[in-house]
Amino acid sequence: MSTVAYITVRGLFGRRRALLLLPLPLLLMALAAICRGYDVKPSDWGQPVIVGLGLAVVLPVIALIVGTGVLGSEVDDGTIIHILTKPLPRRDIILAKLLVAWVVTALTTAVPLFVVGLLADSTRLGVALAIAAVVGSLAYSALFLLLSLVTRRPVLLGLVYVLVWEGLLGRFVSGTRVLSIEQYVITLADKIAPTGLLDGKVSVPVAIVMSAIFALGGTIYAINRLGSFSMAGETS
Amino acid sequence: MSVVELQNVSRWYGNVVAVNDISMTLQPGVTGLLGPNGAGKTTVLHMMAGFLSPSKGAVTIDDKPTWRNPSIYRDLGLVAEREAVHGFLTAREFVTACARLQKLPDPKAAAKRALEMVEMTDAQDRRIDTFSKGMRQRTRVAGALVHEPKVLLLDEPFNGMDPRQRMHMMELLHRLGDHGHTILFSSHILEEVEQLSGLVQVIVAGRLAASGDYRRIRRLMTNRPHVFAVASSDDRRLAVALIGEKSVSGVEIEATGLTVRAADYGSFTRALPRIALGEGIRLRRLLPSDESLESVFSYLLEA
After folding, report:
1. Residue in B20, B48, B51, B159 to test binding to A, most A beta-carbons within 10 Å
2. How far is B285 from chain A (nearest CA, A)?
3. Interface predicted TM-score (ipTM)
């Protein structure tokens, strides 16, 4: 399992798209620092920066880049074959990939969100956002890992989920929020550090149970899909 | 000793039948899987390697099914046609990683041995994305061989190799076959198979067209009538003269010239100038029109 994780990490940071991980967290922290620097009231900038940028864009987009990068790109260029032609339980391969995606996403998003929470309100909000981001990273990673195996265009489908389902429908159709990882993250952060800045729209039990369902269900289904991985012949 | 077996295997994609009721058994030694492009060779190889489920029938290695059974990779190595390798790794890192994933007791020593076998020791510390096609191919073979599998499947292993690299690879496969490994490689080039393997399985249009010793099949191929396109100053008179020649089995007169069917390549090509000279006819064109591989294969299919 460690060898799969090693190759995955080398692959993730050996590609140019690893650079995409930098600008969004930097932008997030820079915006918060500017607002704080100019003494804008946190009640004015807190919600748009934390929720509008941090939780609705930075967290899911980074999870998408990493989650599809750990497996989708190997499926895409065919290098996955070198890992699949080994006597490894498919569970081990998926868990190694999920672990890498989770750790990288969590580190890249929890740190800037902690900084933003700290600047907006308190250390407590910072910690709450970081914890919620770690939980959200796991649910998103499992989802995007699964997408890499069920479609040839995981990035596109992931973007549709993040922008259309969570972003658009989540705003106007309340029922869709039950299947929105973003809403779980907001609810969890709000529960840990109640401030006026976050407004959780699903209940805490729903947030916890649904996060677990996304993480577990996505992982189990991905393991099953990888077991039946098929290669189409190029000449036949 | 490992035996790869296909029993009445078919594979279809929607309405398209890619592989049609093929049964074959591969024994230790080198076997060539021969057929024109699009015949279904890759589909057969992928089913053997556990990357496609047969729509019908069974694919087994030592009686164990290959589909959804990762444990077969302990005894199986695959060199796929698509030459994707983790380019950010060096050859040594790549082969060592393969050895580790195989859970070999001493991955470094196994990697060293495999790299020596494919003669990649000199370049082993260079990143794979700096390699030529042939070097990449050899690195992939080293990765597939590192656990010394009993069965090695190679899909078009000679594609893109220069003659020297080709020879190296052929020697390597021979050596492995002589040591009791079961090697199957696919190719659409007859001569590659001729040089490498006594046993062939010929697939045409998804069916097993011929199976067995190469020399026997080759004889079938050389016995087929040869077709020539001939144009001359007087086609009709030439046709009359040719039909009297023993080696000619048929003549057709067409707008652009004659189509001549000859049973024996050698005697016809010697007889034609003699006949033309005797009749005072000037030959303008002589083209063997039947030498494409597809026609050889389709002839086999009819035979």
Report:
1. B51
2. 35
3. 0.90
